[in-house]
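User: Could you check the structure of this?
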Amino acid sequence: MGAGTAIAGGVFLEKKNLQSIDGAWVLNAQFRVELSKKAEESLKRGAPLSFLQSFELVQKHEYWLDENKVAQERRYQLSYAPLLNRYRLKTDAGHSDFDSLGDALQAVGNLSDWAIGRIALSTDKRYEARLRLHLEMNRLPQTLQLRVLLSPHWDLDSGWQEWSLAL
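Assistant: Sure, the predicted structure tokens are below.
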């Protein structure tokens, strides 16, 4: 964690790959997630952090609005168990426990073998993939929400990361 990011935190896309395997599209990506000291302190005091991974595949049009072909989301909730000194990451598929915050955050940012589905794409059309990982502020405890909105230390959002899809 760099000195500047230790104060502010952040979410950074490090790698991405969207490929068709036997007609089904699969996404693999890795975000680096760094919590600010304030976010880490809140987590350790019992405030769960909910992260949302979002993916969109859009068909680009020149003279009218773009057409959304696929939109998918996955939610992760990170919490800390002080008696066990472990971090728990809940997903729709279950949960995982981690000994270190670094390992838990790496799992939050790992988009491995995300099955996007079978989508028929035409080679004569233009497509754009969009990917985002962010902290869901509205899922924080209400006592924290106002402080979070007024603080730059909670800006845990990669923003939409876009790239053209080569067919």
